Amino acid sequence: GSFEKLPVAGESRDELSQMGLTFNEMIGLLEENYRKQEEFVSNASHELKTPLTVISSYTDLLQRRGSQDPALQEEALTAIRAETERMRQLIEQLLHIARRSQAQMDWRKMDLEPVLSQVVTAMNASYDRQFHLQLSGQPLIVETDVQQLKQLLYILLDNARKYSEDRIDLEAGTDGAVYIKIRDYGVGIPKDALPHVFERFYRVDKARSRETGGFGLGLSLARELADSLRLRLEIDSIERLGTTVTIVFSGDFNVGELQSGQEG
Ligand code: ADP
Question: Where is the Histidine kinase domain (predicted)?
Fold first, then answer.
């Protein structure tokens, strides 16, 4: 356009084209961001529409035939309750995601052991399943935000529970850096699906997920939590054998503190 006609000396022209490039990159990023937001809103709306459709169909049925048909009444109310619960869960997760950008970090140095014990005790109390805690015996000193770390652990343990039937192991130790491993012996994740599991609304098996109640938001939230907690998240899985998620406290601080802790 008109910019090209400006009389620019050689060097400044380079600068100008450099600025143009940076500007284009910025626009590209903004567009990409905007596209992701749009996709997110569209996915969320779609997920909310599905239970709404079920609820409104059953409401129509109830209105027309409910009073003459007690069995239908029971079926409809059960379905409406289940779908309402699903919508409530989704809205809760959406609110979590929306509030994450404003979350204030409360960094504290602490030993992981009591935190892990609390989480495992709570999971064992909530579910009729066996969550086992295995500790290496070394002190596991990290600097973290304990509430957010717990939230991350609950997401990962809940997945381990949803996609397996056996015991679930929570193992923690140090290997240069402090790590936590969550291991299940369940359905596992197919190799080609593995790179996608951290994407928002991604589910390996949509039909099965509808039964277990997932929306494909858990791991994307887990990744965001791990980012703000400066943790590395790794996932290994073998179909039909199980899945292991590893959390690594990769920050320099953690390693340094641990070394000085061992010396003292
Ligand atoms: P959801 O809420 O649907 O469980 P997530 O984002 O937590 O969503 O996980 C995305 C998908 O990754 C799940 O739908 C499931 O297919 C798969 N997945 C996650 N964790 C596990 C696991 N421990 N074992 C097997 N599959 C898993």
Answer: 43-253
162 vs 176: CA distance, rounded Å = 32
Q: Would you call 132 helix, strand, or coil by DSSP? A: strand
Substitution candidate for ligand 1 out of 159, 163, 189, 241 with most atoms within 8 A of CB:
159
Whole-prediction pTM? 0.81
**Residues lining ligand 1, judged by CB closer than 6 Å?**
159-160, 162-163, 184, 186-189, 197, 202-205, 209, 214-220, 243
Distance, in Å, from the CA atom of 180 to the CA atom of 197, rounded to the nearest integer, reads 19
Distance CA 215, CA 206 (A): 9
**Which positions of the chain have pLDDT values less than 70?**
1-12, 207-213, 251-264
* 180 neighbors 112 (Cβ within 8 angstroms): yes
Q: Rounded to whole angstroms, how far apart are CA atoms 157 and 250?
A: 21
Phi and psi dihedrals of 23, rounded to 5?
Answer: -60, -45
Copy the structure tokens of residue 157. Answer: 């343990």
